[in-house]
């Protein structure tokens, strides 16, 4: 077992500055996309492309309905993901490049498109970014924070029997070695064998 894996299984391990900084950089990148959409996209649609504000706002408002549903769907997908990299990491890796590409396309509406074709492009590109790829990256990224939270001492440590309990026998190392958790334990997105809390 590597030093990194041993540290991940140590309930008393603390996050290093580099780990905190690295996680913050990823979240900063997500917020660049979010801020660009919030601050500049409507201005781009109306002032640069000349789309009516009601039309552009309507496209974004309708899209939020799909966006709300996609958050729930993506959360379910992440929870049901089974891979040797955990639940969250595969989706973060899969969604990063498509999100970057589609964000550029969203701000690059071809000048040759007019009328319904232009609105269709806006609707499609906006939903690919906001509803599909941003959700597909941000939901698992936020889920990964739970693992860091445990190591930072804000949540219970790795899975093991609490006083008076008999579940999760063998402790975290035996569960990790077996590649799965047992009883009421749950292997989270970053390889932690974590007790499943009520309502979580």
Low-confidence stretches: 151-200
Largest sheet: 2 strands, antiparallel
The count of strands amounts to: 2
User: What is the overall shape?
Assistant: elongated
End-to-end separation in angstroms reads 29 Å
Helix content: 55-70%
- The number of helical segments is 6
Biggest sheet: strand arrangement: 1-2
The gyration radius over C-alpha positions equals 21 Å
> How much of the polypeptide forms β-strand, as a percent range?
under 5%
Mean pLDDT: 75
Give me the secondary-structure category: mainly alpha
Order of helices and strands: HHHHHHEE
Would you mind describing this structure in some detail?
The chain has 6 helices and 2 strands. It is mainly alpha-helical and 200 residues long. A two-stranded antiparallel ribbon has the order 1-2. A hairpin with a 5-residue loop joins strand 1 and strand 2. The two termini are 29 Å apart. The C terminus is likely disordered.
């Amino acid at each position: 077992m590597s030093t990194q894996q041993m540290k991940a299984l140590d309930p008393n391990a603390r996050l290093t500055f580099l780990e905190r900084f690295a996680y913050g950089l990823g979240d900063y990148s997500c917020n660049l996309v979010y801020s660009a959409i919030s601050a500049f996209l409507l201005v781009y649609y109306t002032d640069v492309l000349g789309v009516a504000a009601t039309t552009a706002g309507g496209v974004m408002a309708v899209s939020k309905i799909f966006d709300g549903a996609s958050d729930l769907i993506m959360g379910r997908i992440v929870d049901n993901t089974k891979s040797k990299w955990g639940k969250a990491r595969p989706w973060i890796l899969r969604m990063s490049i498509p999100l970057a590409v589609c964000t550029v396309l969203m701000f690059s509406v071809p000048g040759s498109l007019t009328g319904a074709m232009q609105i269709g492009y806006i609707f499609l590109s906006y939903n690919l970014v906001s509803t599909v790829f941003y959700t597909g990256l941000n939901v698992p990224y936020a889920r990964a924070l739970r693992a860091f939270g445990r190591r930072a001492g804000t949540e219970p440590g790795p899975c093991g029997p609490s006083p008076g309990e008999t579940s999760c026998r063998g402790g975290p190392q035996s569960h990790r070695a077996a590649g799965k958790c047992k009883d009421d334990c749950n292997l989270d997105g970053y390889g932690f064998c974590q007790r499943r809390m009520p309502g979580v």
